[in-house]
Design goal:
The complex is a heterodimer of chains A (1170) and B (200). With 1170 residues, chain A is mostly helical. In chain A, 67% of the residues lie in helices and 1% in strands. Helices cover 28% and strands 9% of the residues of chain B. Chain B has a 3-stranded mixed sheet with strand order 1-2-3. The chains are: A mainly alpha (1170), B alpha+beta (200).
Chain lengths: 1170, 200
């Protein structure tokens, strides 16, 4: 006893929650240890006696009038009761015995009658704990509710937190199934306790409490089967809150207005016995007219929808109200302007339609649905003839009809008939457009519904199968074709809209399917009609080619695009469609001579091929039976095959370039290049379609590491694809059996693509120079990169693609046939290497292998050294980057390669007279090879750096070239990207900067070393830094800015080209610093303004061959000058303002337009400095 | 301002796409559903290798090409000025029109970069008794003086017959001292600043 009293006292005196918890835990352990012996529990309960006695029996009034001592008592008493409640909370649920629980319930329950000031919070908490005890009996629950209700009027006076405790107690009891049945047994349908609760809680306003209160109300309606009178009372209790809103509060409570709305909505929708109250109430709210805001309207509509969806027994709960709902709602759509309310209204109407149809398992009497749709149809039919309301009426009808298959099948014929009648005498072009829109929408809905047929009631499929189709079959000739045929040449905007709808309609007609008796889908329209539609639309495609440049205005790009989309949709269901289009397109192209085409024809060819590709390859076709049934097997790849084969058949369009032996003119043979472009585009489109449909995992799911596709290809003729199309060769067995949902399609597509690449590579490497312009080769190279990089590593290895990068898929005996030049083969090599994963390249590095040979190539260049060196550089950068080194770097091949170049640099910049031009080209290759290793952070690079720095500083003229090109090591390179499987370390730029540039600062600054070295090192640093992000060199701003200032004025003994490159880099870096950390420049402002101005003035002089560089310099200089006033306070800039304004005014007359724009901006910035 | 207070409540407005611009002089690039991979399969620069393949993919080939100032440049400078009454630009309201801008001599034929060029802009007020014509003229003048190099002389006038009092307005706009005095006026200056806000 003494112990408990002591603890209780400690608890009451303590304000520290952890300490209180500890005390209650001790008390709880004590009770548990005694196994709840009556004495111990008694002692525990009696421990709070001293706080209870004085105030306990007092009347509340006395307490209220009492002095501080009494209110002190209240706090102490509340804490004492909390001691008991908290002990119960930590106590094991099984400890207390039934009679003890009952007695405690009695004790705490009594508080609700007597101690409204101090006892309620703790008692509610304690009662919640007691209700969760194992020996708690349902009848005790009834008693608790009775006790709680005794608080009556004082409930409102409790704090929100206390009320929350009580609500949670009530919710726990009402939710408890055993208490619930006890309550129902005791009170029956009259639900006396519920009435008392309603009285108790009727004025609640706290959002958190309301959330629970609404939950309690919903449970009362749903689970307690109250009498109509009580139901009405409950309905009144929650509907009084509707529409609910929440005042914004400074202290967030974690409940939003939307939560409250949902909770009230939950009450309305809790049970269909509320239907007689709900619908009239909500509709009366809605009919208040302008007084209702959009948000409230949407709330009402969502509530109605929730009720419709949740109420059971729709015949009794919904049917009696449908007419009233419809009459009230129809104007929201017919005359409404706010999208939200229109959408919410349509949702309600659709919900009714769905509900009246029945559920997946149980269909309702069709008469219910019929009478509802009749109601809507009757009201809207006349509106279809009125241009103002056609769209809205259509929307309403489609919403109720399109909600389920039964409704659609019953009414679509009638609707289409009405549309057709109106379409015969349209009131205006826009009326015609709206009618067509509606017609299209009925067709679209039909497609969607038949797609969903499997998810519904089995009866639905039967209904679809037996629907009448006569009205659909005549649509093409009756409705769409006459409008298409009657189109005029000079169209106004509205007519063009009408035609767009017709085009969409065509596509929808062809895509319509019917269910055959075997459950399979087949096209509704017979093949000849589909074919006719295809040919009508494909005429718009080939039109461009038939016109000349003078008629170019006759085309309607919008309509053409619409036709392209329509054709794409058509060929996805109508399997012969693409073949037909392909025939027409190739015939049109062949009709023309492509030896010397005009720019207009080339553009038309490009458009035609691009569209033709999109139509066939942007989606994967579905297998749908034709009417009559087709004899040919279906393959999801058939359109892709058709496209590839017909493009290959067309290639080459011209076999004669204007000047057969010229190199480097990239505009040659554009027609041929366009075909390669389309082949490339077809891969991009189909790849995207595959990825969208099957996901990337499709390739990982099935391993084919043991397969060598190339070996399989060797048994096939080169023109295998063309043969298949002509029907001369069979498809590979697998292709035929493929279904459109089988992920294997993705793999087979890649296989065909690889075949295609192989074919083109063989043709390009052996073929004539006249057919393959460099543009076409570069495109083919990019295309092969796309295919190769999509293949898995195993496949790249098993097909030995690394070998083919240099062999170009030639057979063993075919080597001699190769006639391509180094550039041509180089371009092709880059394509394959680019896409390979590092492990697939491993074979090339073994011994003194191909890779080493290519990376250390210092042989001479041919006729176009610039291009040759960039191709060699591209090969070098890939090979150096994808090298996977051996464990000991000393012996690695990469070390040999890098040492080779280190030596080469030393020799070439020593006294030996090496031609500067040749050196420069080899230097590009060397720098790229090293760049590949830098991106991988190869440790061997560190040993080359001293050689590079020595070479840059050497007295030889070539040193300057090395210094200038050092930036290549860090330059962004398209070949070094993740999608190309390159190895790019995250911080390689920081790494390279710290080794390459950072050690040179000291010697590069004036006075550091001899002038010559300083000049060269400065060029190196600026070249490197200008290719780094700001964060890399952020810490070295101080020396860097000094270098920049020097670079702007002191050109030293540098050649003109290099000196301007240096200035450009310096200005670029200045722009970066000004953007990121302008404060660093504060001390140098005068020099920077002065020297940049001088640079600008120098750049204004005309110099042959440097026009572009000088313009870039001027642009950058003005960017620097223009940014200064925006970054510094006026006290820094004011002295410079007058000369700057004069200079910038002159700069506004710069001969280059872009520079003028920058100058104007700078001028306005400086004009603000006053 | 209420609609009824506007001097011309219903001016004809051109949409932005109808205004003359340099961009549409060349062949337009088609943007259809099939154009998504155009940048890959019809690259602007068919030679993807070498140092040219650096990050600036949209390097303008015309960088460094000299394009002397022409009428379109002047039009681009003044057409975005806002009308003081309507929420539209002078270009949209056809107050400024490309054919009414004249450069003499044409900058392309200048003997030296410092020789004088006169820019003459004829404005067409939306109605012929527009009281804001002077303010509009002043704004055009200000804009040109702020953005053209010092060897350009600006002459802003009302197009002959487009305004009831074009003589007086022209005189006002041509008088340097009156222009300078007008710019001293705070209210007017604020109005001009507001009109020029839409110029980038």
């Amino acid at each position: 006893m003494a112990q408990f009293s002591q603890w209780a006292l400690q608890y009451v005196l303590s304000d520290d929650e952890p300490a209180q918890l500890e005390i209650t835990q001790k008390a709880a352990r004590e009770i548990e240890a005694s196994r709840a012996s009556s004495t111990v529990v008694g002692n525990w309960a009696a421990s709070v006696q001293q706080w209870m006695t004085p105030g306990f029996a007092r009347d509340d009034d006395q307490v209220e009038d009492g002095d501080e001592g009494v209110s002190g008592d209240i706090i102490a008493r509340a804490k004492a009761l909390s001691f008991l409640a908290d002990t119960l909370e930590t106590l094991d649920r099984n400890t207390l015995k039934s009679d003890q629980v009952l007695r405690l319930i009695g004790f705490f329950g009594a508080m609700f009658s007597y101690d409204h000031k101090a006892g309620i919070t703790a008692s509610a908490k304690a009662l919640r704990q007691l209700c969760a005890m194992k020996s708690f009996k349902p009848d005790m629950g009834v008693r608790v509710i009775d006790d709680v209700c005794k608080i009556r009027e004082d409930f409102r006076l409790q704090t929100a937190a206390t009320r929350l405790e009580i609500y949670e107690l009530l919710l726990a009891l009402i939710q408890d199934p055993s208490v619930s049945s006890e309550l129902q047994h005791k009170y029956g349908a009259s639900c006396g306790f519920a009435v008392e609760l309603l009285q108790l809680c009727q004025h609640e306003r706290d959002p958190r409490n309301l959330m629970i209160w609404f939950k309690i109300l919903a449970i009362l309606v749903k689970d307690y089967d109250p009498s109509p009178e009580v139901t009405e009372e409950i309905f009144k209790a929650f509907s009084a809150y509707f529409p609910i809103s929440l005042r914004s509060s400074t202290t967030p409570i974690g409940i939003t207005a939307e939560d409250l709305k949902e909770a009230v909505r939950g009450c309305f929708a809790s049970h269909h016995r509320l239907a007689t109250f709900t619908f009239p109430f909500l509709i009366s709210k809605l009919d208040q007219g302008d007084a209702v805001t959009v948000a409230v309207k949407v709330d009402i509509l969502k509530t109605i929808k929730a009720c419709i969806e949740e109420y059971e027994n729709p015949q009794a709960s919904i049917v009696p109200h449908t007419e009233k709902i419809w009459n009230s709602l129809k104007y929201e759509v017919r005359n409404g302007e706010v999208k939200e309310t229109i959408d919410a209204t349509l949702e309600v109407l659709r919900a009714i339609s769905r509900k009246l149809d029945g559920t997946k398992t149980h269909k309702l009497d069709v008469a219910l649905l019929k009478s509802y749709i009749d109601l809507v149809f009757r009201d809207c039919r006349d509106d279809l003839a009125n241009p103002t309301y056609t769209k809205q009426a259509g929307l309403l009808i489609m919403t109720v009809i399109g909600a389920n298959i039964r409704g659609y099948v019953l009414y679509n014929a009638g609707l289409i008939d009405t549309i057709r009648q109106n379409l015969r005498q349209p009131k205006s072009p826009s009326h015609k457009r709206d009618l067509l829109l509606l017609l299209n929408s009925t067709l679209k809905t039909r497609m969607e519904l038949s797609k969903q047929r499997k998810q519904g009631h089995p009866e639905d499929e039967e209904t679809l199968r037996s629907e009448s189709r006569a009205h659909l079959e005549t649509l093409f000739h009756d409705a769409y074709l006459p409008i298409w045929a009657g189109k005029s040449k000079e169209m106004i905007a509205e007519e063009s809209d009408v035609l767009k709808q017709v085009i969409q309609g065509f596509a929808l007609l062809v895509s319509q399917q019917v269910l055959q008796s075997d459950g399979q889908a087949a096209l509704l329209y017979p093949t000849p009609t589909c074919s006719e539609i295809c040919s009508l639309l494909s005429l718009t495609l080939t039109n461009g080619l038939a016109l000349s440049s003078n008629d170019s205005n006759a085309g309607e790009p919008d309509l053409e695009d619409e036709a392209v989309l329509a054709l794409r949709n058509i060929v996805m269901s109508y399997r012969y469609g693409y073949e037909e289009i392909s025939g027409r397109v190739t015939a049109e192209i062949r009709k023309r001579d492509w030896a010397s085409p005009s720019a207009y024809s080339l553009n038309a060819l490009k458009d035609l091929l691009s569209r033709f590709t999109f139509i066939g390859c942007s989606e994967i076709p579905s297998k749908i039976a034709t009417n009559p049934p087709s004899q040919q097997p279906f393959s999801p790849l058939q359109h892709f095959l058709t496209l590839t084969a017909s493009l290959l058949e067309l290639f080459p369009l011209s076999s004669r370039l204007s000047t057969p032996h010229s190199t480097g003119n990239l505009e040659e043979g554009l027609a041929n290049a366009h075909i390669v472009s389309s082949l490339h585009a077809s891969l991009l489109w189909f790849l995207e379609a595959c990825e969208a449909k099957y996901g990337r995992e499709a390739l990982a799911s099935y391993s084919s590491s043991d397969q060598n596709w190339l070996e399989q290809f060797q048994h096939l003729p080169d023109d295998w694809l063309i043969q298949i199309r002509r029907g001369d060769a069979d498809l590979l067995g697998t292709l035929v059996s493929l279904q459109q949902d089988d992920p294997e399609v993705y793999r087979q597509f890649l296989k065909l693509s690889l075949f295609n690449v192989r074919y083109l590579f063989r043709a390009a490497s052996a073929g004539s120079r006249q057919t393959w312009s460099e543009r076409a080769l570069a495109l083919l190279s990019q295309m092969s990169a796309l295919v190769v990089r999509s293949l898995s590593e195993e496949l790249q290895v098993s097909c030995n693609l690394a070998h083919e990068a240099f062999n170009f898929f030639a057979g063993p005996a075919e080597d001699s046939k190769r006639s391509a030049s180094d550039i041509q083969t180089g371009i092709l090599t880059v394509g394959i290497l680019q896409g390979l994963r590092p492990r697939a390249l491993a074979g090339l590095y073994q011994g003194v292998g191909v890779a080493e040979k290519h990376m250390c190539d210092t042989s001479g260049f041919g006729t176009s050294p610039s291009q040759e060196s960039s191709v060699r550089a591209a090969i070098g950068v890939i090979l150096a980057n994808k090298y996977q080194g051996v464990s000991d770097p000393e012996t690695s091949m990469m070390k040999r390669v890098l040492d080779f170049w280190a030596n080469w640099y030393t020799e070439a910049t020593a006294s030996a007279p090496i031609n500067s031009e040749a050196f420069s080209f080899h230097n590009t290759v060397a720098m790229n090879v090293i760049a590949g290793a830098v991106a991988r952070q190869d440790r061997n690079v560190i040993s080359v750096i001293p050689a590079l720095q020595r070479a840059a500083a050497s007295q030889h003229a070539n040193g300057e070239i090395v210094a200038r090109s050092m930036g290549i090591l860090l330059q962004h390179n398209n070949l070094l990207t993740q999608e190309n499987h390159a190895v790019v370390k995250r911080f390689y730029k920081q790494w390279a900067y710290s080794h390459l540039a950072k050690p040179l600062y000291e010697d590069a600054l004036p006075g550091g070393k001899d002038n010559h070295t300083a000049n060269r090192y400065r060029v190196v640093i600026l070249s490197v830094v200008s290719n780094c992000p700001f964060t890399v060199y952020q810490d070295d701003l101080e020396p860097l800015i000094r270098l920049l200032v020097t670079a702007l004025s002191d050109r030293g003994a540098l050649s003109e080209g290099v000196s301007w490159t240096q200035v450009t880099s310096a200005l670029q870096i200045l722009v970066e610093i000004l953007t990121n950390e302008p404060d660093a420049l504060k001390g140098h402002l005068r020099e920077i303004i002065g020297r940049t101005t001088k640079v600008y003035e120098e750049c204004c002089q005309k110099k042959a061959g440097l026009a572009a560089t000088l313009a870039t310099c001027r642009n950058l200089a003005l960017q620097v000058l223009g940014a200064i006033p925006t970054k510094f306070e006026e006290r820094y800039t004011l002295p410079h303002a007058p000369p700057m304004q004069r200079m910038l005014a002159v700069a506004c007359g710069d001969p280059v337009r872009k520079v003028r724009e920058v100058a104007r901006k700078a001028r306005s910035n400086w004009a603000k400095v006053v | 301002m209420q609609n009824s207070d506007l001097e011309n409540a219903n001016p004809t407005i051109l949409s932005v796409s109808q205004l003359p611009s340099r961009g549409r002089k060349g062949p337009a690039t088609r943007q259809g559903p099939d154009s998504k991979c155009d940048s890959i399969v019809y690259p602007k620069r068919p030679w993807p290798y070498g140092s040219g393949s650096s990050s600036d993919e949209d390097v303008d080939e015309t960088d460094g090409v000299e394009e002397p100032m022409d009428e379109q440049d002047i039009y681009d400078l003044i057409s975005p000025i806002s009308d003081p009454e309507h929420p539209h630009t002078l270009g949209q309201l056809s107050v400024v029109r490309l054919p009414d801008i004249h450069l003499s001599p044409s900058p392309a034929e200048l003997p030296s970069p410092d020789s004088l060029v006169t820019v003459q802009v004829d404005l067409t007020p939306t109605i012929n008794h527009c009281s804001l014509a002077t303010v509009i003229g002043l704004a055009v003048r200000c804009r040109l003086e702020q953005t053209l190099p010092p060897n350009y002389r600006v002459d802003v006038r009302m197009k002959v017959g487009s305004h009831d009092q074009d003589d007086q307005v022209n005189k006002q706009l041509g008088d340097k001292e009156r222009v300078a005095a007008a710019l001293e006026n705070d209210t007017l200056q604020r109005m001009l600043d507001k009109m020029l806000e839409t110029c980038s």
